[in-house]
Amino acid sequence: MRILGLGCHYHDASAALLIDGQIVAAVDEERFTRMKHDPSFPQQAVEYCLRQAGIGIDDLDAIAFYEKPLVKFERLLSQHAGHYPFTFGTFRKAMPSWITEKLRLRRLVKKKLGFEGEVFFLDHHLSHAAGAFYPSPFDEAAVLTVDGVGEWTTTALGMGRGTRLELTHEIRFPDSIGLLYSTVTAYLGFTVNNSEYKVMGLSAYGEKNRARNPYYLKMREVIDLKADGSFRLVRSYFDYEHAERMPSKKFCDLFGGPPRKPEEPVTRRHEDVAAAVQLVTEDAVFAMLRELHRITQCPNVVLSGGVALNSVMNGKILSETPFQNVWIQPNSGDGGSSMGAALFVYHALMGNPRSYRLENPFLGPGYTSQEVEAFLQERGIVYHRFPSREALLQDTARRIAENEIVGWFQGRAEWGPRALGARSILSNAGNPEMRDILNLKVKHREAFRPFAPSVCAEEAATYFECDTPLPPAADFMLMVYPVRPEWRDRLAAVTHVDGSGRLQAVQRAQHPLYYDLIRAVGEVTGVGVVINTSFNVRGEPIVATPEQAYRCMMGTAIDCLVLEEFLILRSENLRDAWDAEALAGD
């Protein structure tokens, strides 16, 4: 049985291929088009999935689409009718894409892919839920999905047992935790559906004590939150139902002034507002989880939806709720829903037993040594081949220990927005200056942004005050924990201003080369931790090809590139240097 999952047309378009119950390939379209959060039809992602499996489009048994376009269009019409004439401008802009593509998905699949078989359309939040439950390690689990909005649903609670999955409770648009967080994102001068993680990072600089934060109670004014986690947003504070802006004038007045312009400095007020929305988000989600546990009495919970990428919140789930075990889809945003759609059709609709567990997130494209060397030779790039695996590890560990910045391109690419040791930039976590160097000279981004520490899973508790045993979500860099006080000075580059770090616990079974590199760094430095940040610059998706990895190195302060078993030094290829500003994006 071969099922292709698709998601597109809003943001983070993707494709995932399931064969006989196993996900064999999955990738976001942005990795090919180089447009971050690309919403377009995932043509190249589909072609990759089929090529990886060695099959053609006619070999598919079905296609599963991650939502129901007609139901979403119903919401759009309802919004327009309820707020006319204020919505006329946005409605008119939206209509052409609906008429030509979004409402004609079957025809589009036939035209773009040549597929004439059955296409299943699933509820958006059911795809999220399926992408969280079916690949999880649990036979039974409570399910929570939270995002901006699907068709109508913004939050859903339910239960999965075996192959059965049912969502039993929901909250509907316009009430949305995701849209509340996005409203604050816009208010703070960042890009919606792209920079919510910046607000999460900025929140660490603000006052996290609810009694002392001057904006916490104000943030509670804009949301009517009940003890069971149900909520309603106070609509007068929001304009997103009828305008191309999110915070209303009333919202701006409540929080002390007009929205921050992107070029304006970040002030203490902005930091406290970010902290306030983070606190209220945690209030709401933890209340939902407590209610979900009361309803299901299940020790296990799985999460998906864009809000489930909030790693600060995730690190507190087991301490703040009665759940004993948690699993989170590593591609929890809309990109991950293509996988969920395929799995739901295979298990829930077709009744096939479960056998897949998403333990290895490296589902994207990879390159053979022959392909890499052919590229290097064709471009006339000066390179060296490591004589052995051990030589690669020892040389790379030495370079990291000596404060070189290493581009690391190994194996198949990661599924989801986090670089997990396949497409990463690595450096010395013990150098207190490295965070500023990376932000300024490599990533070209805001100085307040933190970097993640990678550590071998068995040693995580040495450096972090983390859950024991560690949830699998920590493998996917989805959990923030306090760095142990005695290690904060020695891990200054990965310790955020509030003493926390977004931990990646690396399992050797998942990525043995990366695991062994961290071990090798520990042997040289005495600290088994490395900085791991995504292999890209601001405004660009993570690199997907050897060409993109090489260009990224040459346009930044990355010192060297370890590209499979090849070493490329920036200093030996300066004739090819690109302007770093041209690569910096927006």
Short structural description:
α3 runs antiparallel to α4.
Describe the structure.
It is a single chain. The chain is an alpha/beta fold. The chain folds into 3 domains: 2-129 and 330-349, 2-Layer Sandwich (Nucleotidyltransferase, domain 5), CATH 3.30.420; 177-328, 2-Layer Sandwich (Nucleotidyltransferase, domain 5); 369-583, Carbamoyltransferase, C-terminal domain (DHBP synthase, Alpha-Beta Complex), CATH 3.90.870. A hairpin with a 6-residue loop joins β6 and β7 (153-161). α7 (177-187) runs antiparallel to α11 (268-296). The model is unreliable at 578-586 (pLDDT under 50).
Q: Helix and strand layout, with pairings?
A:
Blueprint: E1 2-7, E2 14-19, E3 22-28, H1 30-33, H2 43-53, E4 62-65, H3 69-83, H4 88-102, H5 105-113, E5 118-121, H6 124-133, E6 140-146, E7 153-161, E8 164-172, H7 177-187, H8 196-203, H9 216-221, E9 223-225, E10 231-233, H10 249-254, H11 268-296, E11 300-304, H12 311-314, H13 317-320, E12 325-328, H14 337-349, H15 369-379, E13 384-385, H16 389-401, E14 406-409, E15 423-428, H17 434-442, E16 452-456, H18 460-463, E17 479-482, E18 500-506, H19 512-525, E19 529-534, H20 546-554, E20 560-563, E21 566-569, H21 580-583
Parallel strand pairs: 1-4, 4-5, 6-11, 11-12, 14-20, 16-18
Antiparallel strand pairs: 1-2, 2-3, 6-7, 7-8, 9-10, 13-21, 14-15, 15-19, 16-19, 17-18, 20-21
Helix pairs in contact: 3-4, 6-14, 7-11, 8-11, 16-19
Instruction: Trace the largest sheet across and list its strands.
Output: 13-21-20-14-15-19-16-18-17
The quaternary structure here is single chain
Largest sheet: 9 strands, mixed
CATH superfamily of the largest domain: Carbamoyltransferase, C-terminal domain
**Average residue-wise pLDDT:** 94
Judged by helices, strands and strand pairing, the structural class is alpha/beta
Give the overall shape, derived from the CA principal axes: globular
User: Uncertain regions: pLDDT < 50 for 5+ in a row?
Assistant: 578-586
- CATH topology type of the largest domain: DHBP synthase
As for the number of domains, it is 3
Strand content: 15-25%
Number of strands: 21
Q: What is the helix fraction of residues, given as a range?
A: 25-40%
What is the CATH C-level name of the largest domain? Alpha Beta
Number of helices: 21
The CATH architecture of the largest domain can be given as Alpha-Beta Complex
